[in-house]
Design goal:
globular, four-stranded antiparallel sheet, alpha+beta
Length: about 210
């Protein structure tokens, strides 16, 4: 796995390329400076209509260990694991983040899933963002505000022992390339020593409008 650096280090458009062999991740570690990232974090916590949804697994109701909110263009419906997410209208705050991400990555998005990890006990299990409505080659723009958390990646193939770990920094953006969701799973595990919050926005493009 190779990392390449583009642009001037420390600037908002600094970019690292993480080459996983069969997928690429572009990391912009300083997309938002510390002050604006903290301001976004505080406003998102207080102004977003958060929900704590549940999944039915093997006949049992499982409360998700995080809060979430789905925003997007009219008709941008989305579901995963049998859960149909309630569509909220774009907020001006989230639209301003979307504009920055689109400018930085030169990609267009029409929806976003916001996840609020209140502390290190909140998490998300192994998964791939490969639902039908995301199209054949999903590209995900992931923004992180708050405490640094560790994102784990592993191949979908059980015979492939590769792994990749990435620290998501306060104010950073990841662009997950179009083959990543085909070939890899990712998770945000629990980190019990962490007491501070983190918000993650994953911008997507829904094709079945």
């Amino acid at each position: 796995m190779q990392n390449d650096l583009f642009q001037t280090e420390g600037s908002s458009d600094t970019r690292y390329i993480h080459n996983l062999g069969d997928a690429l991740i572009s990391e912009y570690p300083s997309a938002f400076n510390s002050a604006e990232a903290t301001a976004y974090l505080d406003c998102l916590i207080n102004e977003t209509p958060w929900r704590q949804d549940a999944l039915w697994i093997a006949g049992k109701k499982r409360i998700l260990p995080r809060l979430q909110c789905w925003m997007g263009d009219p008709g941008a419906s989305y579901k995963y694991s049998g859960l149909i997410l309630k569509l909220e209208n774009w907020s001006r705050l989230v639209l301003s983040i979307k504009t920055r991400v689109e400018s930085l990555t030169n990609k267009k998005f029409n929806s976003v899933l916001l996840n609020y990890y209140r502390n290190g006990l909140d998490s998300v299990s192994w998964h791939a963002d490969d639902e039908t409505e995301l199209g054949s080659n999903p590209i995900i723009g992931s923004v992180s505000f708050g405490v640094e958390r560790t994102l784990h990646f592993r191949p979908k193939s059980k015979t492939d022992s590769r792994k990749f770990i990435l620290k998501q920094r306060h104010g950073s953006v990841l662009l997950m390339g179009e083959t990543l969701q085909h070939n890899w799973l990712h998770q945000l595990p629990k980190e019990k020593t962490i007491k501070e919050p983190r918000i993650n926005l994953t911008f997507r493009y829904i094709y079945q409008l």
